[in-house]
């Protein structure tokens, strides 16, 4: 897939290209990533923003540089990173990873002229209910989340299948060597070799984490009969029933 990023601060993305799943996906040929400076599409570098109509503090990104940048690129799915967008979640990440071409708009200042959003943007995305200095950190998050789903991004692609939110819930606890650390031992069941019992334990502990930390997620996914049995056990164990 191809991802183009439109930003006033292209240097922000240089470290991402040199490391991690993004670099691996690029080296594997499953990702092309290009970063473009919006100022290059302005009539003058100082004309990328202006005062808002109606008054008020702050500046707004002018529509012309953004429109020119979008028109100069091949047609793609345009995503505007904005505090007003829909929340980024794994389902949306998976949807975006299936697009052959994404164009990410990193907003700045008070935002982007609404007319550009209405004309060009397919989706506004937020990474949380807080305000960032710009859309660049959110674009980094989105690119990383999408890239790790692409072929060659991870050493073992199957490892992503047990990540948090891949099941719609949080992931289970994970352990590695040493067997004992500061008086705490790895759960015996993980060393039992009983794969069915291990799978059940992992599902139960994933449900436990979700129940205690993000219970609202349990209302958003279909629960199997075994899931409901596990939740009944957890409610008793946690003193919630």
Structure overview:
The chain is α/β, with parallel strands linked by helices. The protein folds into two domains: 146 residues, Alpha/beta knot, CATH 3.40.1280.10; 74 residues, Orthogonal Bundle (Trp Operon Repressor, Chain A), CATH 1.10.1270. Helix content is 34%, strand content 17%. A hairpin with a 2-residue loop joins strand 8 and strand 9. Helix 3 packs parallel to helix 5 and helix 4 packs across helix 6. The N and C termini lie far apart (49 Å).
Q: Architecture of the largest domain, according to CATH?
A: 3-Layer(aba) Sandwich
What amount of the residues lies in strands? 15-25%
CATH fold label of the largest domain: Alpha/beta knot
User: pLDDT average, as an integer?
Assistant: 93
Order of helical and strand elements: EHHEEEHEHEHEHEEHH
Please give the radius of gyration in angstroms: 22 Å
How many distinct folded domains?
2
Number of strands: 9
- Helix proportion range: 25-40%
Model regions low in confidence, pLDDT < 50 over at least 5 residues: none
Largest sheet: 5 strands, parallel
- Classified in CATH, the superfamily of the largest domain is SPOUT methyltransferase, trefoil knot domain
Number of discrete helical segments: 8
Shape category:
elongated
Distinctive features:
two-stranded antiparallel ribbon; 241 residues; 34% helix; single chain; Trp Operon Repressor, Chain A; Alpha/beta knot; 17% strand
Secondary-structure map with pairings?
Layout: E1 2-7, H1 14-17, H2 20-28, E2 32-37, E3 49-50, E4 60-61, H3 63-72, E5 77-87, H4 90-97, E6 101-106, H5 114-120, E7 123-126, H6 136-147, E8 180-181, E9 184-185, H7 195-213, H8 225-237
Parallel strand pairs: 1-2, 1-6, 5-6, 5-7
Antiparallel strand pairs: 3-4, 8-9
